[in-house]
Amino acid sequence: MRSNGAMHIRSNGHARWAFDLSSWQPSWTELLLATSCVQPDEKRRLAKFVFRDDVHASLIGRLMMRRFVHLATGLEYDRIEFDRDGKGKPFLKNPGFAVNFNVSHQGRYCVLAGLAGASDRQLPRIGVDVMKIEYAGGRPLWDFFRLMDRNFSEEEWMYIRSHQSESEQLEAFIRNWCLKESYVKNVGVGIAVDLRKISFKIGTKVLDTEKVIYDSTLRLNDELLKDWRFEESLIDKDHCVAVAFEHMHDGVDLSENCFETVGFEALVEAHKPLLAIDENYCEDIISKEYKTKK
Ligand code: COA
Ligand code: MG
Fold this sequence. Notes:
Layout: E1 14-20, H1 28-35, H2 40-47, H3 52-73, E2 82-84, E3 90-92, E4 99-106, E5 109-116, E6 126-132, H4 141-147, H5 154-161, H6 166-187, E7 198-201, E8 217-220, E9 223-224, E10 228-236, E11 239-246, E12 260-261, H7 264-267, H8 279-286
Helix pairs in contact: 5-6
The structure holds coenzyme A (COA) and magnesium ion.
The site of magnesium ion (MG) has 4 residues, from strand 4.
């Protein structure tokens, strides 16, 4: 993963940002500021999380979306309005702007993949998923795989099981799962699909933190989706990330689309609060427990 300081959208219209949640322990002022930059419906949603980690992850995702849309469109923070579609996928409600984005949070990271274009162009949808490469299931890995049987095609299981060690098998499993999620999140269908019909063939075997690979392919209901691209990379050695989008232009180099770290200051650089400071709300958040040790 790279760190370039300021947040930006690349000349190809793509943004790939990662925020390290594990190193963010917000000060009181930061929390007041952050929570005044989310819209009321999302503020209410955040309050319902039991654990503080989940509030942070989702809150940072909201700030990333707002920052991305601000940079892509020039809209002021307090004019940006998000909505969710029938399956819960957030989108920009303001009409007339060509921006698509998606957020994911797991393990240490919250990530955003975004795509911005000229306002009169139909942009492809985008889906992103980040996953920590770990197994904390308690039962033996083979038993867990047995439970997961129905979520992967025969070809996918062959690939996963072709690896020698358990850790390699786990890595292959997580990578495949992450790819599937990126696709599912692109189309926004949630989990109400037969996941065996979404079958990936892995390209380059080893993932990298400095270079994006995009040679894995997807067969949907036995048909190759040849216009789709699945960018894959590592955020760090324990986290893989996949970005899915339909891409009509062959031969475009996407290998530079690595995720860049972003910090809290950059995230709120041009912010304009939408809501008044709410001390009671923040008291409630800081009274929640962390589910992971800080
Ligand atoms: N489509 C795309 N993005 C969605 C979405 C949808 N239907 N619903 C919510 N999102 C966005 C939101 O920004 C959300 O953040 P928020 O909860 O803070 O608002 C974010 O995606 C969550 O993504 P992620 O952190 O990657 O969560 P997830 O991987 O647990 O869930 C779902 C992703 C909800 C879209 C969905 O795919 C799901 O329920 N998955 C369950 C696991 C599964 O069976 N996966 C099958 C693939 S093997
Ligand atoms: Mg996910």
